[in-house]
Write the structure tokens for this entry.
Amino acid sequence: EPEVTQTPSHQVTQMGQEVILRCVPISNHLYFYWYRQILGQKVEFLVSFYNNEISEKSEIFDDQFSVERPDGSNFTLKIRSTKLEDSAMYFCASRPGLASDTQYFGPGTRLTVL
Amino acid sequence: GENVEQHPSTLSVQEGDSAVIKCTYSDSASNYFPWYKQELGKGPQLIIDIRSNVGEKKDQRIAVTLNKTAKHFSLHITETQPEDSAVYFCAASRGDSNYQLIWGAGTKLIIKP
């Protein structure tokens, strides 16, 4: 069964460094999402992406964040200058299209900012 | 802003008994309500979902009920098994969005043998 994959599973970085989290959504899915989950807290929506552009973003998704679909298969989240409070699990999700509500989640990337 | 409240935060039940997890949502325009199961070290996995034009949906041992008037929805697991132990999250779509999900805080379900 197709699934969303994410790399790396764990990323450790120094404060102020740039990180890129990678996701490979399910093939033929049209909508893509990033969520984050700070330890012990709720899952929070960051951004949704459709037709090669951001369709929605939350207040969390400020100028330090960007997303890209560079090659038709990968979907990346870049954090330009990481802060301690960016430490969290980051989940990528994809959805087939308008006919389906279901979002399929990847296993997540644990980001630790030191 | 929109919010989803989930109760209880921890639920411990005897194997074979039923478990019920409840959520309330604030956005009256929400129209899609999924439930996700998250096992340790894994991403959330959809287990069942319901749309606002349906009051109840069942899939084997799992059922979801929705009361739109009260803005409540609940997950029911019958004949619980050890592999049901996990964290369960409810979510509601933000009514005016492209299926952006607003999540509950999660319920840790413990199945006692």
Summary: Chain A has a mean pLDDT of 93. The first strand of chain A starts at residue 5 and ends at 7.
